[in-house]
Amino acid sequence: MLLRAVEAFLKQYDMPATKFGRLAAHDPRFVLDLRMGRTPRRATEARTRGWMAEYEVAARKAARAAGRNAGDDVSDLRFSIPDPVFTDSPNHKAKHNTKELSHAA
Questions:
Q1: Would residue 2 be called left, alpha or beta, if left means φ above 0 and alpha means ψ between -120 and 50 degrees?
Q2: Which of 51, 86, 93, 103 is in Cβ range 3.0-4.6 Å of 24 for a Cys bridge?
Q3: What's the CA gap between 52 and 6, in Å, rounded?
């Protein structure tokens, strides 16, 4: 069942459900909808499981680069794995708000 795998992933990497949804399914409500009984399409489930597998590979590589063993706790590595760039990132908003303020002046 996908929800069990997702819940285990969230716990292992100490990742918020909304962040997982944004990154894995481009839907911040994805995990919340799964918890409410949503059944994803096969392609969506396969893509989500593939994303989790790729994330775990990246976490293991980051652990090795940091001098840790593969079995070590990797929950603190969530900050060392780069996230995709979204246009609603805090830096983008700060720049956007600055432009709005400069136009208002």
A1: alpha
A2: 51
A3: 8
The whole-number average pLDDT for the span 1-9 is 97
Mean pLDDT over the full length of the chain? 79
CB-based contacts of 62: which residues, under 8 Å, 6+ apart? 74, 77, 80, 81
Give the CA angle between residues 24, 26, 30 to the nearest 5°.
75
pTM of the model: 0.64
Listed residue (75, 24, 71, 29) closest to 50, CA to CA: 24
Instruction: Give me the residue label for tokens 């396969």.
Output: 46
What DSSP line would sit under the chain, residue for residue?
A: -HHHHHHHHHHHHT--HHHHIIIIIS-TTHHHHHHTT----HHHHHHHHHHHHHHHHHHHHHHHHTT--TTS--GGGGGTSPPPP-TTSHHHHHHHHHHHHHHH-
Kind plus residue range of the DSSP H or E element containing 49: helix 42-65
